[in-house]
Specification:
The chain is an alpha+beta fold. The protein has three domains: 82 residues, Phage tail proteins - horseshoe like beta roll fold, CATH 2.30.300.10; 80 residues, Baseplate protein-like domains (Phage tail protein beta-alpha-beta fold, 3-Layer(bab) Sandwich); 200 residues, Roll (Phage tail proteins - horseshoe like beta roll fold), CATH 2.30.300. Helices cover 19% and strands 38% of the residues. It is built from seven helices and 22 strands. Strands 1, 2, 3, 4, 5, 6, 7, 13, 14, 15, 19, 20, 21 and 22 form a 14-stranded mixed beta sheet that branches. Strands 9-12-11 form a three-stranded mixed beta sheet, covered by helices on one side. A three-stranded mixed beta sheet has the order 17-16-18. A hairpin with a 6-residue loop joins β3 and β4. It is globular and about 70 Å long. The protein starts with a helix and ends with a helix.
Length: 380
């Protein structure tokens, strides 16, 4: 792979700074702004001065000739000692200002605007452009800012209503897209392009039974306990001890909607309980391929972890230092971990239920139990 394609460059007002001793760029699905950190440490020479790089400067970070961050330097930390001098710089995409800053609009209410239009309105004061990949859904009949919320909090409410995700586009803007709308071009395969891998199977936030409770308006057909004590439950077979969790609806629900909420809670918590981390050599999908992408389905074949399926890249970190060279650390999860929450408004009994599938943790546990039994049988 060409070293030029793996180079990391910080561009400030047309001036390129490279040859960093270490560099890191991180993108993740629950953050609308990418973040970076670069560091330089050299032997001390008489008369040396700190590089003319200060916090607040507008900057661009490139991998090869491809921009991956366009925003501002948040922090600049020059240092020196008798032996060496150094500089560490960190910053984020322009879209970070939507996270940090309040949304100021008057009157702060819009009628009949779709998600792309509303996102553009919220992002425009910060100089952040917004585009979309695919359909953004129907217009929202009425959207109103809440007192004191940040621009991102408002945007997040819009995105949830249309089951969308906002990702940084690498050029200082945002792109709206459906969860799982992308796909990486190659698979991650043990023995081929994986340097190391690990998995966390965590049952801390899983429960044996999810009890959804609520109420709905009464009528001639639904009355008494059927109206004031709506309930439904979903059980997680992976949790064998007694661990109940009550889910209280914030709005009116019928039994079908309560069932959907309980099933969603079980499925999403099960999917989130497993995180796979993979370190791959280089920043790209193959010698001349594109950079590894966030929110992309990726084939994973890791026999040691008993994994052979497609997972979602929930976090991508490009990392380079003088010791290990260029690597990409990918955090992967079951796509079900990002399933949108069902609406709590009452629905008809014909609403399609969320199908219960065996999650990674359950399959891993069942396989471990089988192997334990084989070991016991072999010892007899």
């Amino acid at each position: 792979m060409s070293l030029e394609k793996e180079s990391v460059t910080l561009r400030l007002d047309g001036v390129d700074w490279s040859y960093w001793k270490s560099a890191e760029v991180t993108r993740q699905m629950d953050a609308i702004a990418g973040a970076f950190s670069v560091a330089l440490a050299d032997r001390w020479t008489d008369g040396a001065q700190a590089l003319p790089i200060a916090a607040g400067m507008e900057c661009e970070l490139l991998i090869g000739d491809e921009p991956v961050i366009k925003g501002y330097i948040d922090k600049s930390s020059p240092s020196f000692s008798a032996q060496a001098h150094g500089l560490t710089i960190s910053g984020r995409d322009k879209s970070a200002d939507l996270v940090d800053c309040s949304a100021l609009h008057s009157p702060g209410q819009w009628l009949g605007q779709n998600a792309l239009q509303l996102a553009g309105i919220l992002a425009r004061p910060f100089g952040v452009s917004v585009s979309a990949e695919g359909d953004v859904g129907a217009p929202l009949p009425n959207f109103k800012l809440e007192q004191g919320e940040t621009a991102f909090e408002a945007l997040d409410r819009v995105l949830k209503q249309r089951e969308l995700l906002a990702c940084p586009d690498g050029a200082g803007g945002l792109v709206l897209l459906k969860i799982g709308a992308r796909e990486n071009s190659i698979a991650l395969v043990q023995g081929e392009n994986i340097l190391s891998a690990s998995a966390d199977f965590d049952l801390t936030d899983r429960f044996s039974v999810y009890l959804a409770q609520g109420q709905q308006p009464g009528n001639d057909e639904v009355y008494g306990l059927a109206a004031c004590a709506v309930h439904a439950e979903a059980r997680d077979s992976a949790v064998t001890r007694y661990r109940p969790l009550i889910l209280r609806a914030e709005s009116n629900v019928d039994s079908a909607a309560a069932g959907q909420r309980a099933a969603w809670e079980r499925a999403v918590r099960a999917a989130r309980s497993v995180t796979v981390s993979v370190t791959a050599q280089g920043f790209r999908q193959g010698p001349n391929g594109p950079l590894w992408r966030l929110n992309a389905l990726t084939g994973v074949d890791i026999p040691f972890l008993r994994l052979r399926q497609r997972l979602m890249t929930s976090k991508v970190t490009f990392r380079r230092d003088t010791g290990s060279g260029s690597v990409t650390v990918l955090e992967l999860k079951d796509p079900a971990a990002f399933s949108p929450e069902p609406k709590e408004a009452a629905t008809s009994a014909s609403s399609s239920p969320i199908e219960s599938e065996k999650d990674l943790q359950t399959r891993f546990a069942e396989d471990a139990a089988r192997r334990q039994e084989e070991i016991r049988e072999g010892a007899r």
